[in-house]
């Protein structure tokens, strides 16, 4: 352990908070892959730890914790409302925001959405469902456009042929990790 809560791992300094966040996201990913669920106790533990870290390590205090939680949760909530994402994914992104604070939470959401898109394409290619996936995306875009033009709901209807479900905790973990690397290298859009 060195000063300011940092430790060195193979010459690479990692903040203890970031290491715990990545560990929690790894565990959430394992649960999501295995059962397609993210346990509430895991998210709650992350929220408690991140609040303690903000309070005791001087990482912006309660306001940074609460605003980060709101940003992470709030930016994913519309995806839940239109049934494009599960509630566990929204809560998990809120936990990420609670760790990172508001500005960095927005950056983690952005990199997570990109990672999710790349992961979805990779899974579709791997499973041979790319044609189905592209047809579903096309159908969703057309349905949403017509409903919006006619004053209807933007809610996503069930598609006739699903291309499969993506364990989105994996995308959240990958996107958050990439965002932390971008912060470390000084290239993050939001830090």
Automatic annotation (TrEMBL):
It comes from the Bacteria. Residues 20-121 form the Prepilin type IV endopeptidase peptidase domain. GO terms for cellular component: plasma membrane. The keyword Manganese does not apply. GO terms for molecular function: aspartic-type endopeptidase activity. InterPro entries: Prepilin_IV_endopep_pep, Prepilin_peptidase/N-MTase. Keywords: Membrane, Transmembrane, Transmembrane helix. GO terms for biological process: signal peptide processing. Belongs to the peptidase A24 family. This is Prepilin peptidase. It comes from Noviherbaspirillum sedimenti.
């Amino acid at each position: 352990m060195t000063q300011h809560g940092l430790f060195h791992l193979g010459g690479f300094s990692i903040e203890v908070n970031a290491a715990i966040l990545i560990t929690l996201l790894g565990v959430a990913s394992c649960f999501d892959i295995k059962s397609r669920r993210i346990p509430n106790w895991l998210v709650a533990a992350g929220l408690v730890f991140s609040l303690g870290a903000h309070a005791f390590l001087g990482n912006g205090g309660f306001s940074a914790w609460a605003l980060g939680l709101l940003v992470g949760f709030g930016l994913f909530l519309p995806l839940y409302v239109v049934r494009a994402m599960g509630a566990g994914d929204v809560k998990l992104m809120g936990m990420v925001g609670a760790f990172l604070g508001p500005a960095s939470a927005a950056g983690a959401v952005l990199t997570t959405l990109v990672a999710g898109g790349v992961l979805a394409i990779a899974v579709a290619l791997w499973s041979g469902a790319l044609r189905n996936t592209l047809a579903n995306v096309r159908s969703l875009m057309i349905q949403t456009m017509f409903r919006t033009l006619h004053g209807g709901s933007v809610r996503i209807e069930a598609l006739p042929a699903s291309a499969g479900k993506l364990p989105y905790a994996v995308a959240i973990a990958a996107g958050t990790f990439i965002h932390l690397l971008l912060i470390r290298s000084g290239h993050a859009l939001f830090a």
